Amino acid sequence: MKYLVTGATAFAGCHLTKLLLTEGHTVYATSRRTNGSETDVLDTLTREEFDRIHWLFCDFTDKSSCVRVMKADKFDGVFHLGAQSHPPTSFQLPFYTQTVNVLGSLNLLEALKDNQPDTRFLFCSTSEVYGAPELKDGERMDESWQIAPVNPYAASKAAFDLFVCERVRNNFLDGLVTRAFSHTGPKRGRIFSISSDAFQIAAIALGKQAPVIHVGNLTSRRVVADVRDVVRAYYLLMTNPALKGVYNVGGEGVHTMKHYLDEMVDIAGLAGKVTTEIDQKLWRPIDIPIQVPNTDKLRRDTGWQPTIPLRQTLSDLLDYWRRKLA
Questions:
Q1: Which of these ranges, 65-74, 225-234, 275-284, 316-325, has the smallest mean pLDDT?
Q2: Is the pTM higher than 0.85?
Q3: How is 187-246 classified by DSSP, letter by letter?
Q4: Residue 246: per-residue pLDDT
Q5: Total count of domains within the chain
Q6: How high is the pLDDT of residue 38?
Q7: Residue 86 maps to which CATH number?
Q8: Smallest Cα–Cα separation from 104: which of 130, 80, 120, 70?
Q9: What angle do CA 55, 152, 108 make, to 5 degrees?
Q10: 19 with 27: CB under 8 angstroms?
Q11: Per the domain annotation, does 196 fall within a domain?
């Protein structure tokens, strides 16, 4: 099978590309830069895997660029992960975020419709579209939960999320929407929570930073999955042609952000040897206090379940940053 992955040089896209190659598929991947930065995926992929990828330049904001991609080959499926995906940045650059995530996605989907309308399309939305809910004890958020975004990034994702849902409902598109809850793992950017802590812990362990970890809000509660489990859910959904509509993707066990920090400090052997310091630059203008996913639909329809323990995820993330910093 031939698959196109947008956002393949970024966090989840890189792991999805690796999974597709491992499963024996032909992979086309987009990059919006022409400076050779696609080699960043070598943090995760082997050289042999990298050489099997068919790279295509694509700037979503330029429709002609999207058309060229859709004329490059006939794809069995398109995984659309490419986006401006950092919520704090979306407050600073709201119009850019909307341009890339909404207009750019529309350009891509229109090019798909005009050139290969029968190709299956999976849009990676986000749990951020659900906003900042007030959950009761034990309550989980399913796919029918109200969409009420509280940041520009979430608003941009919600707009295209709803558009894809309408296209699928009215049989104009063979498509799916995934709403992934918090996930982390190797290659997660250091501007994101948990990975920011991991980056600093690795630097402290290597003697490259004083034993003080700069943190944001540690009281927020999240269910955190491993990125490799998350992209496996995307793959199972894409490769089951009977499935359509919206699917939550998320892990198990809700914890405070402090819990994840403490786990990594313990893994690194730094318990009792470091302190934390609040850094206002790491606080979101509007925070989401808690998110707990209901993934029953995904599990029922695909048999998916998380397989990588949290401590392994955090250990692998720390190892990633140790290698990078060393």
A1: 275-284
A2: yes
A3: T--TTSTTHHHHHHHHHHHTTSS-SEEEES-S--EEE-EEHHHHHHHHHHHHT-TT--EE
A4: 98
A5: 1
A6: 87
A7: 3.40.50.720
A8: 80
A9: 30
A10: no
A11: no
- By residue range, what is the domain housing residue 153? 2-185+226-250+292-307
Distinct helix (H) and strand (E) counts, the chain = 12, 14
- 279 lies in a domain? no
For residue 112, CA distances in Å to 33, 63, 172, 244, 261 come to 21, 11, 12, 18, 42
Identify the burial level of 34 via C-beta atoms within 10 angstroms of its C-beta, where 0-12 means exposed, 13-18 middle and 19 or more buried.
Answer: exposed
The gap from C-alpha 279 to its chain's centroid, in whole angstroms, comes to: 25
Report, as an integer, the average pLDDT of 159-165.
98
Q: What angle do CA 228, 232, 236 make, to 5 degrees?
A: 175
* Mean pLDDT on 152-162: 98
pLDDT digits (tens, 9 = 90+) for 167-181: 999 999 999 999 999
Alpha carbons 272 and 267: distance in angstroms, whole number? 12
Q: Give dist(CA 235, CA 23) in Å, integer.
A: 10
Kindly report, residue by residue over 49-101, the tens digit of the pLDDT.
Answer: 999 999 999 999 999 999 999 999 999 999 999 999 999 999 999 999 999 99
Are residues 260 and 315 in contact, defined by beta-carbon separation less than 8 angstroms?
Answer: no
Query: Is 286 domain-assigned?
Result: no
For residue 285, being part of any structural domain is answered with: no
